[in-house]
């Protein structure tokens, strides 16, 4: 799943696996109108080729360009459909499957990640300046989140 959060003049993006809610990759970009989709493509390119994977996201990722590029990379786009005043780029070959519905239900899990990073991880008020430093802090906080998440997952088994 790809999602973002705003940090000062930056956008923070995460790639999360749905099964356990662990972060796979973090990425920080400067805030602009296309940063979300560009970061999504950069992180999708880092996914190892092999078996088909799915990539979820919110309505902002529902564009013909992004959906087409993901399909070309053997990635099924499980982004939320944006049907407001236009036709969604995600068609019935994706939405008819049960897995699409599951992805849409699990999308909220990434909001829990950003909530934890803001409240517990100290990203509510970032005191660093510069994309490299903010990116380092965001990645470090993501690693701390994964450690806490792993502890909780291990306690339930």
Question: Would you kindly provide a written description of the structure presented here, covering whatever features stand out?
Answer:
There is one protein chain. The protein has 157 residues and is α+β, with helices and mostly antiparallel strands. The protein has one domain: Nucleotidyltransferase, domain 5 (2-Layer Sandwich). 45% of the residues lie in helices and 20% in strands. The chain is built from six helices and five strands, in the order βββαβαβαααα. The strands form two sheets. The protein has a three-stranded antiparallel beta sheet with strand order 1-2-3, sandwiched between helices. The two termini are 24 Å apart.
Please summarize what this structure is.
The chain has helices at residues 35-45, 64-72, 92-95, 98-106, 109-119, 131-156, and strands at residues 2-7, 10-16, 23-30, 53-57, 75-79.
Strand order of the largest sheet: 1-2-3
- By DSSP, the count of extended strands is 5
CATH class: Alpha Beta
What's the shape?
globular
- Count of discrete structural domains: 1
Give the CATH architecture: 2-Layer Sandwich
**Percent of residues in β-strands:** 15-25%
Mean pLDDT: 84
Sheet having the most strands: 3 strands, antiparallel
Q: What are the low-pLDDT stretches, counting only 5+ consecutive residues below 50? A: none
Helix coverage percent of residues? Answer: 40-55%
Number of helices: 6
Structural class: alpha+beta
N-to-C span: 24 Å
Which H/E pattern describes the elements? EEEHEHEHHHH
CATH T-level topology: Nucleotidyltransferase, domain 5
Radius of gyration: 16 Å
